[in-house]
Design brief:
6-stranded mixed β-sheet, 2 domains, alpha+beta, 17 strands, 299 residues, 6-stranded antiparallel β-sheet, 6 helices, Elongation Factor Tu (Ef-tu), domain 3, Gyrase A, domain 2
Length: 299
């Protein structure tokens, strides 16, 4: 990643949740502790099916008594609809905010915004936005929610040079960070397989939320047999969903998102842990080699 560079993320959108019950409303629905969110702290969380399978992931930050959910843009309406079913008598409003954009920025958080280099550290940005250190990994840089109009100029004024989306994709994949339903199939993926525990997306002490039972059972009973992890690719970039097999033909997992770049392709894949060290895995016409990131804890 280039120091002090930034890029807007066109595939991310913002859902705003306001009203006096906004935090208690979300608290019983999502995987992380919403009570910890304020203008100085942001979290990463997910919304699951009652069976504990993935539906949505998002970053939750706050500005002026409004929670901003940085989520998948093309699935924002689905997220709003699903959350609205639980609103009942809660004093909350849920509103899509197409006037707001999401960006990532690379560089020293402390030098740029006066933020500590700590995951989740946040502060207001401009008149209506918020900047925060990625709550999953501080190494992933900063995320920003800011007015769409004039966003690039605002980032430039903050000292960032515009870069390409490919630069962020390459960094994300090397770090092993999943990006919504591209890497976590809807109603199939589980958070423990997707690294949410180590990436601070689950609070096991916060109390009940939808899908808690399966998530806790997978953690405490040691039921995690697969993990989403970075892979290097020798050969053509496999399509998402391409099966992975061992040299002797055993099922070893499945390809997720990837990037073809100069010097070779990289990506994320769901790997069966029992086959992780069995040499390069076959993925169509390519060979795939798992890489365990520093943050990942394996049995």
């Amino acid at each position: 990643m280039t120091t002090h560079s930034s890029v807007l993320l066109p595939h991310r959108g913002v859902l705003a949740i306001a009203g006096e019950d906004r935090k208690t409303f979300l608290q019983g629905l999502v995987t992380n502790d919403v009570a910890r969110v304020d203008e100085g702290h942001a979290v990463h969380a997910a919304f699951l099916t009652p069976q504990g399978k993935f539906l949505h992931e998002f970053f939750i930050s706050e500005r002026a008594d409004t929670l901003f959910l940085d989520c998948e843009a093309d699935r924002l309406d689905d997220l709003r609809t699903r959350l609205s079913r639980y609103r009942l008598r809660a004093k909350v409003t849920l509103e899509a905010r197409p006037d707001l954009a999401v960006a990532v920025a690379f560089g020293a958080a402390k030098d740029t915004f006066g933020l500590p280099n700590e995951a989740g550290a946040a502060k207001p940005f401009g008149d209506a936005g918020v900047a925060f250190v990625d709550p999953r990994l501080a190494e992933a840089g900063l995320r920003l929610v800011l007015p769409r109009e004039g966003a690039e100029a605002a980032l430039a004024e903050a000292g960032f040079t515009a870069t390409s989306l490919e630069v962020w994709e390459a960094a994300r994949l090397r770090l092993g960070l999943p990006d919504g339903s591209r890497d976590m199939p809807i109603e199939k993926a589980t958070l423990m397989e997707s690294g949410f525990e180590e990436l601070h997306g689950i609070d096991f002490k916060k109390g009940c939320y939808i899908g808690q039972e399966l998530t806790a059972r997978m953690k405490y009973r040691g039921l995690v047999k697969k993990r989403l992890m970075p892979v290097t690719i020798d050969g053509p970039l496999p399509d998402p969903g391409t099966p992975l097999t061992t040299p002797d033909g055993k099922d070893a997992g499945e390809m997720r998102s990837g990037l073809l770049k100069e010097g070779g392709a990289i990506g994320l894949a769901l790997i069966r842990l029992e086959h992780r060290t069995h040499g390069p895995l076959q993925a169509g016409a390519a060979l795939v080699s798992p890489v365990v990131p520093d943050w990942m804890k394996l049995p």
